[in-house]
Design brief:
The chain has five helices and 16 strands. It is an alpha+beta fold and about 280 residues long. The protein has one domain: 4-Layer Sandwich (Double-stranded beta-helix). The chain starts with a strand and ends in a 9-residue tail after the last strand. It binds fe (ii) ion. Fe (ii) ion binds next to loops.
Length: about 280
């Protein structure tokens, strides 16, 4: 297999693979290394079925059921993310976030397969939390290193949750859970256990406040961090094609589903995986 970088900071397209065949130990190791190094890996024309997708996820960790969007009983860890052509409302993942960072144990990463994509639009943006850390002004680094950030599941819980009729997100089945709004404290800065690279672990969908500060005091600092993380230089914009597989590191990236394809159907199938614990990424 070959890895071709997509941007100067992160992301790689992997070629020379057929993931429908049994994946041997050497390829598994290469894929794990590629994810550690590039954080987002893209493999075209794979057309995986659910079992093949599950086998691919298992290379990186145990498949994890999304408590807010479980799949069908045979494949509880498979979340179908569908937006129908007639839907005019929001889209699943339509804001910068890392998946489920408001849980005690957020998933380590995800494998997303494109089933049906619109003829244009429906891209996914990714941003590198490593790039954001590397380019962060020193005063911010001093302020955040060793501190914690409170995460709350506002789209899932009661805080700021949009009305249910505006939640046209078929990938999700459970909303309005007050438990999701309980503050979970995670380190603001994580260190990748394989590469030793540092990255921010802060996202605008779920990060509420900085340790030792109120929400109000935290807001201007967080706003500046969100602006910095989403600078174009720290981002990758992915154009989907049917059959494409994308694997991302959920502890070192954010993503954003662009909702610009009204009138067209889009269907994706996602499996998240867990691997170790977030605390292992702490300094
Ligand atoms: Fe997401």
């Amino acid at each position: 297999m070959k890895c071709n970088p997509i941007t100067g900071f992160f992301g790689a397209e992997v070629t020379g693979l057929d993931l429908r065949k049994k994946i041997d130990t050497s390829v598994k190791k290469q894929l794990q290394n590629a994810l550690s190094e590039h954080l987002v890996i893209v493999i075209r024309e794979q057309w995986l079925d659910a079992d093949q997708q599950r086998a691919l996820a298992k290379i990186f960790g145990e498949p994890a059921v999304n408590p807010y969007a479980p799949g069908l009983p045979a494949y509880p860890e498979m979340t179908h993310i569908i937006k129908e052509a007639k839907e005019r409302t929001g889209v699943f993942g339509g804001g910068w976030h890392t998946d489920l960072s408001f849980l005690d144990h957020p998933p380590r990463g995800s494998v997303l397969c494109a089933i049906e994509v619109p003829p244009f639009g429906g891209d996914t943006m990714f941003s590198s939390q490593h790039a954001a850390w590397d380019t962060l002004p020193e005063p911010f680094k001093i302020m955040l290193d060793g501190r914690k950030i409170a995460h709350v599941g506002k789209p899932y819980g009661v805080k700021w949750a949009p009305p249910i009729e505006e939640q046209s997100m078929k990938g999700s089945t459970k909303r309005g859970d007050p438990e999701a709004d309980r503050e979970r404290w995670h380190p603001a800065v994580l260190t990748h256990p394989v590469t030793g690279k540092k990255g921010l672990y802060i996202n605008p969908t779920y990060a509420l406040r900085i340790e030792g500060m109120s929400e109000e005091m935290s807001r201007p600092f967080l706003e500046e961090l969100f602006r910095h993380t989403s600078l174009p230089e720290h981002c990758l914009r992915l154009r989907w094609s049917p059959g494409m597989v994308v694997i991302w590191d959920n502890y070192a990236t954010q993503h954003y589903a662009i909702n610009d394809y009204h009138g067209f159907r889009r269907e994706m199938r996602r499996v998240a995986f867990k691997s170790g614990r977030l605390e292992e990424w702490s300094n």
